[in-house]
Amino acid sequence: MPLLNKVRTAASGGSGGDTAARSLSRLRSALTLFFALDGFLFAGWVVRIPAVKEQTGASAGDLGLALLGVSAGAVVTMTLTGRLCRRYGSHAVTVATAVLLSLSVALPALARSPLALGLVLLVFGAAYGGINVAMNSAAVDVVTALRRPVMPGFHAAFSLGGMLGAGLGGLLAGSLSPTAHLLGLTLAGLALTGAAGPVLLRHPSPAPPEVRPARSAGTDAPGARPGGSRRAVLVFGTIALCTAYGEGALADWGALHLTQDLHAHPGAAAAGYSVFALTMTVGRLSGTALLERLGQTRTLVAGGATAAAGMLLGALAPTVWAALLGFAVTGLGLANVFPVAVARAGALAGPAGVATASTLGYGGMLLGPPSIGFLADWFSLPAALTTVAVLAAGAAVMGYLARDAGEARTA
Length: 411
Prior knowledge:
By secondary structure, the protein is mainly α. Helices cover 82% and strands 0% of the residues.
């Protein structure tokens, strides 16, 4: 009997409830570890980009082209992973892509030319895109099984893993070569996958087979207009895009705004993204309680509106400290919008919905930095950063307009 059926039997007083509940708790813990591992490995690679650039002799332009390999590999794989999850199960695909991600994170350190770097980053990006779709698909099923909105907790684990990976990488950068560091990440990733993977592989996806067809790509909910679910998935994917645009923009341009426009000390400028990431993590850690109190629609609307107000302050504030406050508020606002959007898309269309929303969201993270750069050239950097507020406000409006789509299924 599928795990979700056992949990429902337990809820109605059936036998085996304690065993099913413990099994689901272990499954949730193992999946949380995969989210943390994803953030940890990706951040560990990011902090070694300067050293790998020097090692390969890449110019800034060469590096930019090579880094597109991550994006290209991720986007292509995201569009395919939903099909793999439907065929083999999201748990098996999560474990397989975690192994591939762990192995491929070491490859950039072995590259000796910009071309070789770009090619290995295609593999790394493919693994990164695949695990993000697979583990989010698995998380949607756990949310359904628990009947609690715990998706933000998984994304908080990703943020915490990223902070740990970046912090550890910064400490080791001066004492370890990129090769030693990234090979160490490979060993750590394989060890953690070996510890958590069997838990996922022992349990099939918690959703029962009879509901899978109703959650397949292109299948509308009962009573919905033809194509209604597909349109709703695209709406939630666009919401994810709008919020990820802000993450990418602040990661690449926040520090420059503080130094160039507000003449911040380098230390204060470096704190800009750290403050944003910290408040986003705090927001996600409290996200389940927030969703239980407000519901999904109000959380989306409040989050988008809060982020819009925070980014207007961050972009237009006349002082460094006011701008940092704006970045902090923006992080709190954006914290739970992406997880909720992905969960709603997954509730409507299963792994295919998660794949669509994740691909659009990742596209937003890629779109943000270059868009800000072009707009800064045409207008100014503060004016360009206000587009983050505009898109966050747009996400709030779309969340309200899509208030009836998918919410009941994830309650």
